[in-house]
């Protein structure tokens, strides 16, 4: 900004910021792309691969992550212990059960460039399974990033006025038997 | 199209770290004053209001069917299917839970087509959307009733699922005649 002093402009350009992303009901791949972009520093116009311009990213609520399709049962994470017969394969559901942070961590690890900088960038990534943060990290946070996916509203999250304001599309014939009176009441009253 | 604007405004999300005020602007539809009922019968022959009259020594207790106030008129009242009556043919998705919940039972199943009056394709589309909504966890109160005394053996891990929005008009087979145009 032209109104900044030189030192303020220097600080604003080169300081390392701390971003926070809420992963509740989000696909982990989309969270991981946002993380990897900011860990490398590719969101900055001063980016250069050698200039160590990456920022810190804090991901919270990773235990509420949401996969699309049947990936919880079909996506397989493989590893080998190095010993014969040590090939292990676990589904995403099993891995999430064992460690709720692992899916996001592996996703980001796979999206970073495969060089020696990757380990330092992973050290700057902080993942938390729920939304409790330690005080020192909370004090460092500068910006919250928008969630990549809009969470649809559940039926229980609508207020009664909104439900009543929505018109009834069909009315049952006169002596139709509903199972419970509340449903019958709503249908009868064209609300 | 009032219903469409209601649908659009109703589909706002609750994204963000702090769930602030949802800011949903449900507008454009008139509120109808519902008369307070003194007794709501469990029997299903329509809603009746209990009226007591005392004439000298005789007391008459009568159940009068309540006159249903006219709701908002659909934009296309001559069509047979409720979706075509309200011109919502290609405008709903699995996230429009207020629309879908009008066609389901309390245990989550679909109501029969002969009762709701839906045409075949719309019934199928709504069934697909209801299935997607169940999978995404948008209908938490419409679960199948478990027999009494049933204790689940192991607590199943709660896994969140995401549905990708599908374009329903790409799924339906090509047909030239719309029921609403007849």
From TrEMBL, chain A:
Main subcellular localization, coarse class? mitochondrion
Under Gene Ontology molecular function, one entry of this record is:
mRNA binding
Per UniProt, the keywords (alphabetical) are: Mitochondrion, Ribonucleoprotein, Ribosomal protein
Q: Name one GO cellular component term.
A: mitochondrial large ribosomal subunit
Domain of life, source organism:
Eukaryota
Read off the Gene3D superfamilies from this record.
Ribosomal protein L13
Q: Where in the cell is it found?
A: Mitochondrion
By its UniProt entry, which InterPro entries does this protein fall under? Ribosomal_uL13, Ribosomal_uL13_bac-type, Ribosomal_uL13_CS, Ribosomal_uL13_sf
* Record GO biological process: negative regulation of translation; translation
Q: Which CDD domains does its entry note?
A: Ribosomal_L13 (cd00392)
What PROSITE patterns has UniProt attached to this entry? RIBOSOMAL_L13
Q: Which family does it belong to?
A: Belongs to the universal ribosomal protein uL13 family.
- What name is this protein filed under? Large ribosomal subunit protein uL13m
> Which species is the source of this protein?
Lates calcarifer
* Encoding gene per record: MRPL13
Automatic annotation (TrEMBL), chain B:
- List the keywords (alphabetical): Mitochondrion, Ribonucleoprotein, Ribosomal protein, Transit peptide
Top-level taxon: Eukaryota
* Places the protein is found: Mitochondrion
Q: Which SUPFAM superfamilies match?
A: Ribosomal protein S18
Which Gene Ontology terms cover its molecular function?
A: small ribosomal subunit rRNA binding; structural constituent of ribosome
What PANTHER family does UniProt report for this protein, alphabetically? 30S RIBOSOMAL PROTEIN S18, LARGE RIBOSOMAL SUBUNIT PROTEIN ML66
Protein family: Belongs to the bacterial ribosomal protein bS18 family. Mitochondrion-specific ribosomal protein mL66 subfamily.
Q: What is this protein called?
A: Large ribosomal subunit protein mL66
What is the originating organism of this protein?
Answer: Lates calcarifer
């Amino acid at each position: 900004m032209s109104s900044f002093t030189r030192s303020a402009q220097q600080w604003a350009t080169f300081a390392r910021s701390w971003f926070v992303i809420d992963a509740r009901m989000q696909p982990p791949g989309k969270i991981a792309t946002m993380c990897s972009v900011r860990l490398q520093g590719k969101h900055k116009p001063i980016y250069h691969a050698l200039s160590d311009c990456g920022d810190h990213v804090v991901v919270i609520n990773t235990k509420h992550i949401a996969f699309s399709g049947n990936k919880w049962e079909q996506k397989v994470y493989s590893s080998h212990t190095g010993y014969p017969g040590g090939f292990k394969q676990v589904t995403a559901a099993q891995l999430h059960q064992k460690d709720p942070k692992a899916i996001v961590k592996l996703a980001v690890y796979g999206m970073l460039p495969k060089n020696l900088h990757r380990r330092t960038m992973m050290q700057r990534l902080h993942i938390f399974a729920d939304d409790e943060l330690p005080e020192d990290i909370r004090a460092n946070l500068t910006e919250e990033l928008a969630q990549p996916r809009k969470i649809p509203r559940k039926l229980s999250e609508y207020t009664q006025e909104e439900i009543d304001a929505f018109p009834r599309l069909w009315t049952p014939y006169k002596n139709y038997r509903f199972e419970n009176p509340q449903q019958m009441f709503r249908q009868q009253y064209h609300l | 199209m009032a219903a469409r604007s209601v649908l659009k405004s109703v589909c706002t999300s609750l994204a963000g770290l702090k769930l602030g005020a949802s800011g949903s602007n449900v507008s454009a539809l008139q509120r109808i004053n519902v008369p307070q009922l003194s007794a709501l019968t469990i029997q299903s022959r329509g809603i009746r209001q209990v009226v007591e009259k005392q004439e000298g020594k005789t007391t008459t207790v009568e159940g009068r069917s309540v006159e249903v106030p006219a709701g908002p008129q659909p934009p296309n009242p001559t069509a047979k299917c409720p979706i075509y009556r309200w011109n919502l043919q290609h405008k709903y998705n699995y996230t429009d839970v207020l629309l879908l919940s009008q066609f389901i039972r309390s245990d989550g199943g679909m109501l029969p087509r002969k009762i709701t009056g839906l045409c075949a394709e719309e019934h199928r589309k709504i069934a697909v959307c209801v299935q997607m909504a169940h999978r995404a966890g948008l209908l938490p109160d419409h679960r199948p009733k478990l027999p009494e005394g049933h204790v689940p053996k192991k607590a199943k891990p709660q896994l969140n699922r995401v549905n990708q929005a599908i374009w329903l008009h790409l799924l339906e087979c090509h047909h030239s005649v719309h029921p609403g145009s007849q």
